[in-house]
Write a structure and sequence with these properties.
With 155 residues, the protein is mainly α. It folds into two domains: 73 residues, Multidrug-efflux Transporter Regulator, Chain: A, Domain 2, CATH 1.10.1660; 64 residues, no CATH class. It contains seven helices and two strands. Helix 5 crosses helix 7.
């Protein structure tokens, strides 16, 4: 895009809503744009680049405070990238932890489904397990893996 960029164009380029851009301005992620005589926001190429950075960072799961810090550091080109590396490493640890929790949830769901005999609600193992958390971890990992393999045949 060349020339002035209006908020609708920014939203389209950033694949977000106009309200999202206004929010980013409000919390200081995007600098306040200049305005036309008719009070329309006019953005620059730099602001568009910042929006694209923010949107891509959000797609990768970075928090708004993490993004704000990275944008601040980006404004200091001679600054060591150690701080950015640290933010990315901390985020990776968060993602890995989330993946581990999701895999644990997946295994438990596979186990519950594998124990359901499919008769009626009164004898439903899934309902029984959800009602009593202590029933969640009674099987070992080998049993879960076997059930996971057997359930793939049903898909």
């Amino acid at each position: 895009m060349r020339g002035p960029i209006f908020i609708g164009q920014m939203a389209k380029a950033g694949n977000c809503k106009v309200q999202t851009i206004r929010y980013y301005e409000e919390i200081g992620l995007l600098t306040t744009p200049k305005r036309t005589e008719g009070n329309q926001r006019i953005y620059t190429q730099e602001q568009l680049k910042a929006l694209l950075f923010i949107r891509h960072s959000r797609e990768l799961g970075f928090s708004l405070p993490q993004i704000k810090k990275m944008l601040q550091l980006n404004g200091e080109p001679d600054h060591s990238c150690h701080d950015i590396d640290q933010i990315a490493k901390e985020h990776l640890l968060e993602v890995e932890s989330r993946i581990a929790r999701l895999q644990s949830m997946q295994n438990e769901l596979i186990r519950m489904i594998g124990h359901c005999e499919g008769r009626n609600i009164a004898t439903c193992r899934i309902i029984e397990t959800l009602a009593d958390h202590e029933l969640c971890s009674n099987l070992d990992q080998q049993d879960v893996s076997k059930q996971s393999e057997s359930l793939r045949w049903y898909d």
